Prior knowledge:
Layout: H1 9-20, H2 23-27, H3 29-35, H4 39-67, H5 71-79, H6 85-118, H7 120-123, H8 126-137, H9 140-158, H10 161-189, H11 194-202, H12 211-225, H13 231-237, H14 245-273, H15 282-295, H16 299-333, H17 337-356, E1 365-366, E2 369-370, H18 371-408, H19 415-442
Antiparallel strand pairs: 1-2
Helix pairs in contact: 1-10, 1-14, 1-16, 3-12, 3-14, 4-5, 4-12, 4-13, 4-14, 4-18, 4-19, 5-6, 6-9, 6-16, 6-17, 6-18, 8-15, 9-17, 10-14, 10-16, 11-14, 13-16, 15-16, 16-17, 18-19
Organism: Flagellimonas maritima
Main location: membrane
Transmembrane segments: 12-33, 39-59, 87-114, 140-158, 170-189, 209-238, 250-272, 298-319, 339-360, 380-399, 419-442
Amino acid sequence: MSKNQWSNKFSFIITTSAFAIGLGNIWRFPYIAGEGGGAAFILVYLILMFLVGIPILTIEMALGRMSKTTILIGFEKLAKKYQWNSIGWLGTITCILIMGFYIMIMAWIVIYLWECFSGKISKLSIPEITGHFDVVASNLSIVITVILTIMLAVFFVVRQGLKNGLERYSKGMMFGLIILMIGLCVWAATLDGAAEGYHWLLSPDFSKINFRIIMSALGQLFFSVGVGMAVAFVFGSYTHKNENLIKSTIWIIIADTFFAFLAGLMLFPAIFSFNLQPDSGPNLIFVTMATVFNQLEYGWAIGTLFFLLLFLAGFTSLISCVQGLKDTFKDKYSLSDTIALLVVISCITAIAILAVFSYSDNPFLIFGKTVFETLDYTTSTLLLPLSGLLIVVFAGHIVGFDRLKSHLITGLEKITIKAYWKVVLLWILPFSLLIILINGLLNT
């Protein structure tokens, strides 16, 4: 049984928000919003967040609080049957795999941060910037060294425990994130041509809302809130019995969505000011934004702050996942904190190093895909939605709404509220996740 408990409600909300806010908020949400109709997409996304995002995150955390332990033991305890542990293992393995390639991306970010600070990016020509990412990614020894350094920092933070480690560092980094994001948004607003970026991101165009865009929004939503990765379950087990999970989750979702919105206000005014094409994913930050910094008079300084922002966003998610995984293995196998932490870090590091070799001269291919591409596809298209689907089916049909409802919110008495949550749990969430899973497989 997990003996950890949040210091207070504020610590719970801030730390869980730090876990949810990650690279996807910066490099994916703004692009989907602009491509999908601007303000029209944002309205649809907010509706989906309240209909689907808040309930599914609340339900996973409620399962954790109900079990009073971590996910590998929790499912067995709640169902009183050993075989349900497979859902816990699915979420745990998914989290480890995602962190394996996530840490590689963070290593690239650290390298670009240093190259901006040292002025190297400013000295490259535009054609050189386009190909520079391949140069960085294929420098295997440097990337692996940075990965090991980051994991050493993760060990240092998580080894200090929930309150002195994860809580304390998440609060400090969230403060840094807010300051950097607001500062960069103000900078972007001063650029010539910024209005065009705002127009692309915010102008409502409901004609662009279609099935593909809605599926992109749902996929981004589930990935962003971190459902199906075991961490929300573990964080729920840390909560006090009187914690109003629904209210807390609303604040977490608001913080996560607001940060993603600010990222758009920071990125696209800068991109359109230099007549560049909007993009998403690694190309957005390692090519498009690097080109912006290359052309600015003080681009080295702005670029350094930008990549520092990315690092903080990624690092808070990373330490949250490692904390949850560490406690999961500690409880399951009665390990010490240090041994459990070393097991988790070793697994993530091993996967990260395998992913790094995707950029070698002769990469190992799995059905025509590199290890990195395989990890990305398997986790985002298959494992995450499948894990989320099994969790909500377990909550609704094995645990049952009548057992779960008292852990969702203190004083859930109103019949209309109970009826709404029951419909969401039994029908809306399973249907949404099933559609995402099928859509992802069909579009492969």
